[in-house]
Amino acid sequence: MSAPSAPRTVPPPGTHLPSATTAPRPAVDWRVRFVALSLIWGFSFLLIKVGTDGYAPFQVTFGRLLFGTAVLAVAMAVRRERLPRSGRTWGHLFVAAFFLNALPFSLFAYAELTIPSTLAGICNATSPLWGMALSLVALSEDRPTRRRVAGLGLGFVGVLTVLGAWQGFSGLDLSGTAMALLASLSYPVGWIYLRRTLAGTGSSALAMTGSQLFLGTLQLAVVTPLFTSLPESVPLLPTLSVIALGALGTGLALLIQYGLVTEVGPTTAQMVTYFIPVIATAAGVALLDERLSWNTPVGALIVLVGAALTQSRARGGPVPAPVASPGSTKPPGPPGSPEEDRTAEARSHAAQP
């Protein structure tokens, strides 16, 4: 469900956030929207699982991108947002759409053919770990600290615990698990690419996000007919799952998170990441009757603690580099700018499934 390192949604470079005295009061309290976002992203893994019961994985991915793009297109029309005009920007967004949308969404869909949605949700939580490891290599300004290195090691111990490494991974579908982990790795690859290529474009977050999802939809529109055939029927529940996965889990969720970052700041908004694997696990066990052994929740907790440590910083220290931002597209502002700092914090955890 990108993402499982992260993450959709800060004002464009040079834009000043409205003060508390001038900003209009949202109709829905931010706490309600925070809970809604946690539930939407947490249930996305269940929706993927149900969607693949009636459709091929590529068809599920194409549907979610199509409906997600439609939601953002409506939002862009209402706000009168302009699409990026630079061909260079569109080229970079095409690459970002592959790593942040088309590839991880498809990998999660294929993975859930053979692994439980609970395991997919936990794999998604490893995105911050992959992101830190990659940023140490790709981003020269991202300095490691003992705490963050310890978090990286702890996080991967958690992964081995989830997978039951001491049992020789018996009973585990290795190919499905590998695809889920690769999906989580794809998110920070895409985000680091955006950070290095599209910082300071001047386009709004909404316009960049909508454009990226549109390009991801085009990519799946080409790939899907090559590897799948038209479904013989249109099953109701899988169809509703794909629509909800796109319209709610991709489109609406990005709009909600954008509002949260703007209103309460990235530090609070990114906390949603800690609830995603918990909700995904609860949904899979309660609604799909998936089995849960002791090492799964214990390992997931270790992964989340490690991920939190990789995103921590010493007092007065630099903000950790952004890692995964699966559904997001807005690159940070110029290096050292307030926009870049807010973006890095906002994306350091969040990984859309």
Summarize the structure.
Helix content is 64%, strand content 0%.
Q: What do you see in this structure?
A:
The chain has 353 residues and is an all-alpha fold. It contains 13 helices and no strands. It is globular and about 55 Å long. The N terminus is likely disordered.
Shape: globular
Question: What is the SS-derived class?
Answer: mainly alpha
Mean pLDDT across every amino acid position: 81
User: What is the beta-strand fraction?
Assistant: under 5%
Order of helices and strands: HHHHHHHHHHHHH
- Oligomeric state as shown: single chain
Q: What share of the residues lie within helices? A: 55-70%
Q: Span from first to last CA?
A: 2 Å
Main pleated-sheet profile: none
Rg estimate, integer Å: 19 Å
Please report the number of helical segments. Answer: 13
Enumerate the spans where pLDDT stays under 50 for 5 or more consecutive residues: 1-23, 316-350
Q: Please tally the β strands and state the result.
A: 0
Question: What is the element layout, followed by pairings?
Answer:
Layout: H1 30-51, H2 57-79, H3 87-111, H4 117-124, H5 127-138, H6 146-163, H7 174-197, H8 205-227, H9 236-264, H10 266-269, H11 276-287, H12 295-310, H13 338-347
